[in-house]
Amino acid sequence: MNEHGSARSERLTREDAAYVARLARVDLTEDELDLYAGQLAAVLDHAAQVAAIATSGVEPTAHTLPLRNVLRDDVVRPSLEREEVLAQAPRAEDGRFWVPRILGESP
Amino acid sequence: MSVEAWEPVVGLEVHCELKTATKLFCGCRNAFGDEPNTNICPVCLGLPGSLPVLNVKAVELAMFIGNALHCEIRPSLFHRKNYFYPDMPKDYQISQYDEPINVNGWLELPDGQRVGIVRAHMEEDTGKTSHMGGGGRIHDADHALVDYNRAGVPLVEIVSAPDIRSAAQARRYVEELRAILMAIRASDGRMEEGSLRVDANVSVRAGRTDELGTRCEVKNLNSLRSLARAIEHETERQVSLLEAGEPVLQQTRHWDEQAQKTVALRSKEEAFDYRYFPEPDLVLVAPGPDWQYQVALCLPPMPAERRAKLTELLGAGGPTAAQVDQVATVVALGLDTLVVEAASSGIEVPLALARTANEAAADADRAREVDRAAYGTLLRMEQEGMLTPTQAKAVLADLFENGGHPADIARRKGFEALGAGTVVAAVADVVSAHPEEWARYCQGEDKLVGFFTGLVMQATDKKANGKEVAAELRRLRG
Ligand SMILES: [Zn+2]
Fold first, then answer.
1. Structural domain count of chain B
2. What is the distance between the alpha carbons of residues B188 and B357, in angstroms, rounded to a whole number?
3. Could you tell me if B85 and B233 lie in one domain?
């Protein structure tokens, strides 16, 4: 988007859709990629219609709710029972969640 | 070209865990060292339907940090930083992105040098991952275990400008920042427990050009020592690459404490694309003028001001080099009020400073809680010769550990002050047993005071007071 908030000029490509799928760790077949690239592009085109509205002089909005500073006091509330939580995990060991071998560092 | 012709250019990112009672977005306890996964709830586990609510204390501490670092405090927003890694059960971290709460500040080092602060923003900490098998090394491990007690703990990330020009200066910056964070009670300053973590962005440039080189980010710096060593090593590595005509690659590198060098992490298939987007479940945080004024009003004296106060107490002679270090230590550990209070009750400042910078500093956590009157009494007993320095130190250690009254502790330890007659007799014995040394002392060889004092100490089982012994020797010499 440019500084006036107008939408991108070019349509979402099949490569864009493949990239988004990879980021989201979604494995798509070639047929699915064709299907979803088209659907996703249609959604973005629909959202792009707001670009047609004249917005000069309208304050940028951070949030749709007319609220700010929603805060809670720093007071401890009971946590969940560990055994109950770990029982719902695929695997646990030694009071901790068991996860498969990790490749690479934390981002 | 030699290394001297190159200059490191360093910017630091310091992650500070805030000392709140609860996490950033839920009421789970924020505590180090609890049993794994005992401080977790639907919010910090990212269970469907749970909603984050921001902790007011975390916002206030972030504002204290902004104030102390002379930042502009602004209306701010939270974003989701998306990535797949098991240290966050939600698969995203809530962090402030393009609208951080604090921007454009500075920190002044004790030598007057200023380091710019680009931003200091709020975010949540991640869980703790332990790699199991393969000696704990990430690539050889066969699985990992995750503890989410730390997931959601409030952090402020303080990003400096690339204004730092040496490993020593980087160290001074972190020391000063740590002292400030402890002064405002935002942090406990415990680097070894990870409550203060430092990443360094290091590049090198030749001479005084304005052009910045390619930078590497060095992670895993868990102590001031490893911070300094990592910057030195990384500077040398980049310089030798450039001198060999090879490029420096932009990388994230890990400080290997055992090998004492930085190593590249496995190269990434693609740059991280975090797909930041505004966190829809949180609204704008915009502290109004009243709240900002309150925080500014409550800002305690900063370390620089407190060092100046102690230096002033030392008086006209000015501090010796050793006293400059003592002042820095005492203030960094938050023990300076012990010295100030002792001084105001008539204790000599150099004595109060030395005991505080050495004995109290060695047991700082307990020394901060010590009964002030008892501490003053102990110093007075030493000042008035009722205890020798060695005895005073032993009583102090006991006082910090068990409390009580210094006079009782001294009595229990058998530290009754020796009568003046005992010292006189012991000195006379020692002098008559060493006529040769005595003659030299009488001819002006003053350093022999140490020799005689040592012998008197032996003879009196260390109960004699060094000052009294020296005075008796001077009296005998006439
Ligand atoms: Zn929680």
1. 3
2. 19
3. yes
Q: Across residues B119-124, what is the average pLDDT?
A: 98
Alpha-carbon distance of B127 to A95, in angstroms, equals 14
The one-character DSSP state at A88 is: T
What's the pLDDT tens digit per position in B252-262?
899 998 999 99
Same structural domain for residues B310 and B237?
A: no
Count up the domains in chain A and report the number.
Answer: 1
Q: How far is the CA of B34 from the centre of ligand 1 (A)?
A: 14
| Residue B100 tokens, joined | 């951080």
pLDDT tens, position by position, B156-206: 999 999 999 999 999 999 999 999 999 999 999 999 899 999 999 999 998
Question: Do B103 and B54 fall into the same domain?
Answer: yes
Interface test with B, best of A59, A64, A97 (most B CBs within 10 A): A97
**A96 closest CB neighbour out of B39, B55, B145:** B145
Q: Is the domain of B315 the same as that of B173?
A: no
> How many residues does this entry show for chain A?
107
- Tell me the pLDDT tens digit for each residue of B147-166: 999 999 999 999 999 999 99
Regarding whether B223 and B103 lie in a shared domain, the answer is yes
Residues 6+ positions from B293 with CB-CB distance below 8 Å: none
Least confident among B143-147, B207-211, B435-439:
B207-211
Domain range for residue A52?
1-56
- Give distance in angstroms: CA of B24 to centre of ligand 1: 9
**Which among A76, A85, A105 has the least Cβ separation from residue B29?**
A76
Backbone angles phi and psi of B107, in degrees to 5: -125, 135
